């Protein structure tokens, strides 16, 4: 049910790179497919230094429903992803954990979501101890929208 096109609307994270470069955020689109009926394959399209890039990742199903694992290269590079909340038709709130670091992302089927969905996202943010000073919203223009 997560398959299809999504837009990255917002992210909450203590990532220092994100904090230092938040003024350079670009609209970001993600295509999600389910190639084998279980794992999630993502193609993220974003602009970086004036060029459009595609980042491909494959999340393998974990033992529990709504949980996935991205296995990176090297020690400590795996990322656990959990679907926190979604209605599949308009928004998805996803948790990402790498080691002790956690981030939360809000995706929308369109580049803008309603205030009620933003409030749900902010409730999830507060529940894990993040705050508005670690929350970044993506612009709805200037990115790669033809994904």
TrEMBL record:
This is CO8G protein. One of its GO terms (molecular function) is complement binding. Residues 3-138 form the Lipocalin/cytosolic fatty-acid binding domain. Signal peptide: none annotated. GO terms for biological process: complement activation. GO terms for cellular component: blood microparticle; extracellular exosome; membrane attack complex. InterPro entries: C8G, Calycin, Lipocln_cytosolic_FA-bd_dom.
């Amino acid at each position: 049910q997560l398959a299809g096109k999504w837009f990255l609307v917002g992210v909450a994270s203590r990532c220092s790179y994100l904090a230092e470069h938040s003024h350079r955020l670009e609209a970001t689109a993600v295509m999600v497919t389910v190639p084998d009926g279980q794992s999630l394959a993502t193609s993220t399209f974003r602009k970086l230094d004036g060029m459009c890039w595609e980042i491909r990742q494959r999340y393998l199903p974990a033992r529990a429903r709504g949980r996935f694992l991205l296995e990176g290269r090297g020690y400590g590079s795996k990322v656990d992803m959990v679907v926190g909340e979604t209605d599949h038709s308009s928004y998805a709130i996803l948790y990402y954990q790498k080691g002790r670091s956690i981030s939360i992302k809000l995706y929308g089927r369109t580049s803008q979501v309603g205030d009620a969905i933003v409030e749900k996202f902010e409730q999830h943010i507060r529940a894990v101890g993040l705050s508005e000073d670690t929350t970044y919203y993506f612009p709805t223009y200037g990115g790669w929208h033809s994904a």
